[in-house]
Amino acid sequence: MEIPCQVILDSTNYFQWWSYIVDLLRSKGLYRIVLGQETKPKDEDKVAKWENREDQAHGLIGMCISGDLRFHITELDTPNEVMKQITKVFGIKNELRAHQLENELLTLDPNNFSSIEDFLSKFKTLRLLLEGVKVKKEDGTLSIPFLLSWD
């Protein structure tokens, strides 16, 4: 059985999850339904197929959300409503989230990774997440903690 979702939404990874779920939905031709750009057809012959695609989008999003967080979406009927609710709850671009990401970035220890590639991947991911909450870090401000942590 194919695992439909490689990134499961939890309380800490909204921006990473959002990027992944958008790509996943697009790859399956469902993203326009989620956005509400592709609406239910008036032609009765096409309604059942469209409703199945809407259900597929809703189910795919639901399977990519941690079971502990699904209570946020249980009462929602459409994938558009689900995505709006998830964004409302987790997509807040605030100072606290920026501070958490910045702290994680500044305390990264290369010795805790199996390879330099893994470390650099985590470093780049955290920088992108910081940009997602509208905080830009110049490489110069990050190089000193990086160099100090390298043994």
Structure description:
By secondary structure, this protein is mainly alpha-helical. The protein has seven helices and no strands. It has helices spanning 14-27, 31-35, 44-63, 79-90, 95-106, 116-132, 139-149. It starts with 13 loop residues before the first helix and ends with a helix.
Can I get a quick summary?
It contains 7 helices and no strands.
Features:
60% helix, mainly alpha, 7 helices, 151 residues, disordered C terminus
Please give the number of β-strands: 0
What is the global morphology?
elongated
Class per helix and strand makeup: mainly alpha
Distance between the termini: 44 Å
How are helices and strands ordered from N to C? HHHHHHH
Low-confidence stretches: 143-150
Largest sheet: none
Helicity range of the residues?
A: 55-70%
Mean pLDDT: 83
Count of structural domains: 2
Radius of gyration in whole Å, from Cα?
Answer: 19 Å
In DSSP terms (H or I, runs of 4 or more residues), the helix count works out at: 7
